[in-house]
Design a protein that fits this description.
This protein is α/β, with parallel strands linked by helices and 465 residues long. The protein has twelve helices and 16 strands. The strands form three sheets. Strands 7-6-5-4-8-1-9-10-2-11 form a ten-stranded mixed sheet, with helices on both faces. Strands 13-14-15-16 form a four-stranded antiparallel sheet, covered by helices on one side. A two-stranded parallel ribbon has the order 3-12. Bound molecules: calcium ion.
Length: 465
Amino acid sequence: MILLLACNPPLPDADSEAADSDIGYGEDSLSVHPNDGDTTSIENELADEKPNIIIVYADDMGYQLGCYGSELAETPHIDSLARHGARFTNGYVSACVCSPSRAALLTGRYQQRTGHDGNTTANGQELDENEQTIADVLKARGYRTGLVGKWHLGHFESNQLPLSKGFDYFIGNTGNITDEIHHYYKGNEKVKDISSHPRTTGRWVLESKKFINESKDEPFFLYLSLHAIHTPLAANKRAMNKYSHYKPKRKQRLAAVVDEVDKAVGDIMEHLRKLSLEENTLVFFISDNGLGRLKGINIDNGGLRGRKWQLFEGGIRIPYIVYWKGKILPNQTINEPVIQLDVLPTVLSALEDSVSLAMDGVDLLPLLEGNTDTLERERLYWRFGSQYAIRKGNYKLVKAFADQETPYLFDLEDDISETKDISEEKPEIKSALQMEWEEWNSQLPPPRWEDHRWNITMEKASEPK
Ligand SMILES: [Ca+2]
């Protein structure tokens, strides 16, 4: 059986010992922007009226956070966001891999509406040219819009890059660090290859602070799209030393990159506080898909079945945290199912604005403000090659394997690990969900391109135990 590690195979030496040396873009090698620590922010009337928006989108994170029950690494800063904000226990993404998850995040629409079902790996595979992004929407409302980190929605032409999709500012790369088609840009200018410098988290924090400093007197939108914890697993010395007791080395690296993500969130939040911007900034922390496959180490993923590339819960149920000091209730654990499609409608609600887009997400503010316990949404849908799924209430119908003759039916309330197929006990529910999924699917175009890994059977590799 072939084990898949990530969206693309790592370069031969990408996860090697050499990657542990502090070179290039490591956090330790960079000077801090001269404006960092400036506490003399001028209060701006516009900024008072419109909240700043920050989305931290982690890569392949899965449930590797303390606030989601993991003991792998210490994550005090993200746990604090959850403790002082809202933590969703049924947080989902609409895709089990990177690119389509991002397409849906940025548009508030199921990526299948434009056939963006698979990862972008070649020219001609990019965000549909007619899609509006959250950056388009916010830019039109006077926001300065920035992307720091991973794009993965088009690699080659300038009209596919972030500056053509509503972003004023872009520093980062167009794919995974290990992609053969990976490119590193500042704006539309290709700069140089960073694939040999995989410790990007610290770099992206500094770039984010710089963007915030430059934007602090106007409303801003920062999309901090981390490469971590996607392979290659490479962390700085501070984080590596903290987990030196872990064996094998790969487990140490995994814990260290999770720690770096946590520190990144802590650093950004501290920076907002220094600039007196914390209370006027709505923050999301979400992972783009479930935990990736990590050969050689056995990492629990919150007891969820499956991994990235699968529509079992382990591929699509992810950390989902919202923080807005003084605006949403603190210390909330919310069990209502939500999805990354909800980010854009929620942001618009926070702006007390609307947009004429056919969005699939719903506004989460009523939940976050404690005005309701439920959302007016009955179903969530997934389609990924021959895999498909639908969730309605506690029931989930899922076909996760190419060679699976009929889908499974699970009751997630009693069986979060998807171990007991109740198709025979609940045939009427199974057939109803099947019909409802087919009705949704019948409204969609076919995928615009094939993803060569979406029909692979990977059950044994995906088992949490
Ligand atoms: Ca990912």
